[in-house]
Amino acid sequence: MISVIVPVYNGEQFLPEFLKSILFQKVNFNSFEIILIDNNSNDKTKELINKFKKDNSNIDCKYLFYDGKASSYASRNVGLTNSKGDILAFTDVDCILEKDWLKNIQSKFNEKNNKIISGDIDLYFKDKKNIWENFDKIVHMRNDKRVKSNEIATANMALLKVTFNEIGIFDEVTSGGDFNFAKKAVKKGFEIEFSKDIKVLHPTRKTYLEIKKKLLRLSFGEGELYRKHNKSFARGIIINLLRILNLPKHYRISKKMVVNTGMFRMMIFNLVYFYLKLLQFGSFIRGYMVEN
Asked: Which residues contact 292 (CB under 8 A, 6 or more apart)?
């Protein structure tokens, strides 16, 4: 059996499409369970999930409420303790699952594969000229690129439960728990494998505020991980400063963006992006300093 583990915080906007994609999976409904962990939402998340459960009683769907910590990784850990599958599949509520998602996960583990499967995350545009959508698609959720550095995003990840138990639970941080999980896995000798056939769709972030929230969350979580694992604060400061000054990377992003957005929009983006990098630097420091 596959346990699909999904943290949810204020998922009202995304739940209808996500849950619909569960209904279209090309597997027997008795071959999986879906565990939705409500991380203290204040919208209609609970009502939507309970309605789905009522309307689809043939699907093993669990609703769990968790308010111990504002962390998707803490929520995933709660889901894990309530799972009964021998295969674990992780995704996010703002994803739409391809029809073969569960079927292809099943096939990957038929031979007791102990690899960690990193699935494809296809970010889709609403407006190809939007600089923030272009930046998001180029930089974020790139499991196809991240696997080369032994990194993975939990928006699309699968592995055996026995493998997970050997690696250990997620660090319960604001962001970056998947990054550190992958590092632990590689240290223990497990391999991360990218699979383009295990695919989810994910909308691009469309505004400055959405991108800002994402970038600051990433840096805050990085600071938390540095503190939790007693990493050198000075080293973290240096690494973050180097990211601000990483002009070759900024050039590569700009070169890709200009195709869709045009030169003027791309130049405006670069000015704002430099400012966001400075904000990220401060967010890293706060993440390191603030005890949760």
From this structure: 69, 174, 224
Q: What percent of the chain is modeled with pLDDT above 90?
A: 77
The encoded tokens of residue 104 equal 């292809």
Do 117 and 157 meet the contact criterion of CB atoms below 8 Å apart?
A: yes
CB 223 within 8 A of CB 280: no
> Would you give the distance in Å from CA 106 to the centre of its chain?
21
- Give the distance between the most distant pair of CA atoms in the chain: 54
Residues 6+ apart with CB under 8 A from 256: 134, 138
Catalogue the E-assigned strands of 56-135: 60-65, 87-91, 96-97, 116-124
Question: pTM of the entire structure?
Answer: 0.89
Bridge partners (DSSP) of residue 122 are 201
Residue 226: C-alpha distances to residues 69, 151, 175 (Å): 19, 17, 12
Mean pLDDT of the chain: 93
List b or e across 245-266, with b for residues whose CB sees 16 or more CB atoms inside 10 angstroms: eeeeebeebbebbbebbeeebb
What does the pLDDT look like over 182-205, one tens digit per residue?
999 999 999 999 999 999 999 999
